[in-house]
Structures are given as C-alpha cells and as structure tokens.
C-alpha cells in the first residue's frame, strides 16, 4: 500500500512533463505544415545534387 504513495506523485510528475512538452511543441510550430516536413526528408538529396 505504501508504494501507491510513491507512484501517484511520479505519475503526476510524468503528466506535468508531458503537458509541458506538448505546449512547447505547439509554441515552436512543430505541428505547422505537417505535409511539407514529411516529404522534405525524401527530397533533401535531390536539392543537394542540384546545388553541386
């Protein structure tokens, strides 16, 4: 039963950290233009070849 008194604050701490990371991601525009970011990794090599 005493373990529950340890696990509840740990769970609350994890939730607080997850919420902070979520708001950081939203503020730093991590969710803006999801289509371009997904395809930019595929076409990165072609842009380097054109520049060289």
Features:
mainly alpha, 3 helices, elongated
Can you lay out the helices and strands and say which pair or pack?
Blueprint: H1 2-27, H2 34-40, H3 44-51
Describe this structure in words.
The chain is 79% helix and 0% strand. The chain has 52 residues and is mostly helical. The radius of gyration is 20 Å and the shape is elongated. The termini are far apart. The mean pLDDT is 83.
* Tally of DSSP β-strands: 0
- Total number of helices: 3
Uncertain regions spanning at least 5 consecutive residues: none
First-last Cα distance: 66 Å
Mean of pLDDT = 83
- Strand-and-helix sequence, N→C? HHH
Q: Please tell me how large the radius of gyration is.
A: 20 Å
Shape: elongated
Main sheet characteristics: none
How much helix, percentage-wise, in residues?
A: over 70%
Which structural class matches the secondary elements? Answer: mainly alpha
Strand content: under 5%
Oligomeric state as shown: single chain
Question: In short, what is this structure?
Answer:
79% of the residues lie in helices and 0% in strands. It has three helices and no strands.
